[in-house]
Each structure stands twice: as structure tokens, then as C-alpha cells.
Amino acid sequence: MKNQNQHHEVMSKNILWLLYLLLLFLNAIAFLVYHFSHSDKALWLQLWEYANSDVCKLISASLLLPIILFYLESKFKLADTAAKNAEDRRRAKEQAHLEQVEREKQEQKSARRAVISDTIKLWDKIYEIATDIRCYNIKKADILTIDESLRAIYWMANSGEDVVNDWHSQFPNITLNETTIFLEFFNMILKSSATVAQSIRNKKMTDEELMVLQDSLGVILVSLKGIAHHPMIMIFKLASDLLGNEKDPDKTQQSLHERIEYLTTWFNNIYYLEKEQNQLLSTIEGRSGDEIRTMAREFEQWIGENPSLPPNEFNRYNDLQLSFLAIPRDKRFSAQSYYYSPEYVNVLADTLGFSFFVNEIERRGETCTRNNET
């Protein structure tokens, strides 16, 4: 760069001298012509008249401006200054763009962190509501307390939508189907808690049965915390790292995929368990309850075989509706308030509890292995 500047400076000086010489040479030629054409006049008068002639003015004016420009260029390096100023403006514009991109990147990162924080708070709030029901004192029954818990469950089922919408907007690299699975794990706690609360409120079970149901809720809470909560939060953090172009994206993408696969597998297992074990309208007993549940299973199978047809195309649709409306409203509304049947809550706790039990054994076995190696 320094050599280029020196070369440019030498070139400017050489051109300036050439312009000087050209000015003198052209004027000399023109004066000679004038001298021989006005030989009758004295030399000093010829010089004076030539200096005031249009030819002299034309030649001098034509070369004077380039001479001045090259002189200023050699003196003050105008071209270099202009080029430097242009380069500085380009760099400043580029730097401003990079800073703007970085600010937007940090703002997006902060927004994703806020969504993760809101997700943790949502889980903690649901966990708190469920824990209150889990620890509710059956012997000192207070219906108002249970009603407050149920009100909180219904409210959480609605208020959680804001966080779910933020999942979709801030984490475009997580699909709608995957976030739906995440939401279902939240709903598992809410539904289990609502079933236990309704069972306490309706007082149709013995105290011993209710306490077993509460213990089942406790197992579900502990199990889902490990199965769903921690992997879910890690999924959002990994997705945030990928969106922020953090280092080692291939490894991050692999970790993200593995955790999503893990949650999806658990969701599918629980989904099929619910389909097989969760009894609809479980508190409706006798012939009417058996009949409507039989038709419901037939309807469910028909929907699976005819997903594109409207529900009312089912050949027993009218019978199903009549059987449903034949159940007294008070019993029907009470039955529908149970998202899960009490029996299914116990079955779900057994399934999750066994998995938790196996994980504990594996953890202890791994600890023994590490101790033996050391």
C-alpha cells in the first residue's frame, strides 16, 4: 500500500512537469508564428501583444486548470483523501449494518430466552396447583379449597395459550406437531389434577381410594418432571442456539433431534395407553354407561377408517347422540368434568412410576460402574 502511494505521488509530479513543459512549448510555437508574422514590430511589443492575444489565452487557459489540479493533488493528495473518505464512509456504513444485525440478533435471542423463562414459569405454576391437590388433606375436607384449585386448572388451560403462541413465533425450527406434543405433557398434569380434585369434591370414593389417587398424582408429577420438563427446556435452548448461529451446529442439531425423538416416543406410548385405558364418562355406571361407551369405541374406530368423512356420516351417529342426551344433565356434566377416569390416573402412575423406578436402578448401576473403574 505504501509503495502504491509513493508511485502515485511520483506520477502526479511527472505529469505536472509535463504540463508545465507543454504550456511553454505550445506558447513558444505560437509566439514564433506570431513573431515571424509581425517582424516589423519590436520584440518586447510582440511579447506584449502575444500575451494579450486570444491564442495565448486559449493555450494557457486549456492547460492552466489541469496544472492547478495536479499541483493541488501533489500538494494535498486530494485523490487519496477523496478515496480515503469514500472508503471510510463505506466501512462506516458496513459497520453500522453489522451492528444493526448484531442488535437484532441479540434482541431475538433475548426474546427466545424470555419465552423459555415463561415456559418454566408456566410449568412451575401448573406444578404448584397439582401439588396443592396432591397434598390436600382428605380428613379436613374444604370444598372451597378444591373449587379454587379447579378454577386455577381451568384458568391455566386458557392462559397457557399465550406461551404456546410464543413457541410458534420465536422457534420456527420447532414444528407445530412438536409443540403440540409439548403442550400435551402440560395437559397430562392438568387433566390428572382435575380428575383427583373432582374425585375429592364429589366424595364418591373412600378416603383410602382418594389418598391412593393423590399418591398416583404425586408419581405422575415426579415422573413427568424428568420425562418431559427437563428435555423440553433443553429442546428450546438447543433450538435457540441453532437460530443464533452458535458454534458446532451439526452437534446441536443432532442433540435437538434426539431429545425431540425421546419426547415423541413417550407421547406416543402414553397416547396409546390413554386410548386403551382411559374410560370415557367413567362415572356413568350401568347399562346406559356401557352402551354409550361401546358406541363411542365404534365411532372412534370409524373415524380412524374414514378420516375425510364428516362425523354425522357414522351410521350410529343419531343413536350416539340420543344415548348421550338421555343421561341426566347433572350426571352427564359431572362425568364430563373428569378429563381422565380415576382408574386411568392410577394406571398412568403405574406406567410412569415403573419407568422412574427403572431409571433409578440404571442411575445406581452407572454409579457403581464408575466407582469400580476408579
Keyphrases for this structure?
single chain, 374 residues, mainly alpha, 12 helices, 84% helix, rod-shaped
Question: Explain this structure to me?
Answer:
The protein has 374 residues and is mainly α. Among the domains are: 2-82; 99-274, no CATH class. It contains twelve helices and no strands. Helix 4 packs parallel to helix 6 and helix 4 (78-134) packs antiparallel against helix 7 (207-243). The longest helix has 57 residues, at 78-134. It is rod-shaped, with a radius of gyration of 44 Å. The two termini are 62 Å apart. The mean pLDDT is 83.
Broad shape: rod-shaped
Mean of pLDDT = 83
Report the sheet with the most strands, covering strand number, pairing sense and barrel closure: none
Spell out the helices and strands N to C. Answer: HHHHHHHHHHHH
Radius of gyration: 44 Å
- Counting helices, strands and paired strands, the structural category is mainly alpha
The number of strands is 0
User: Can you count the helices?
Assistant: 12
Helical percent range?
Answer: over 70%
Q: Unreliable stretches, pLDDT < 50, 5 or more residues?
A: none
What percentage of amino acids are in beta strands? Answer: under 5%
Termini gap? 62 Å
Write the SSE topology.
Layout lengths: L1 H36 L5 H9 L2 H23 L1 H57 L8 H28 L5 H27 L4 H37 L5 H29 L8 H20 L11 H10 L2 H8 L5 H32 L1
Helix pairs in contact: 1-3, 4-5, 4-6, 4-7, 5-6, 6-7, 6-8, 7-8, 7-12, 8-12, 9-10
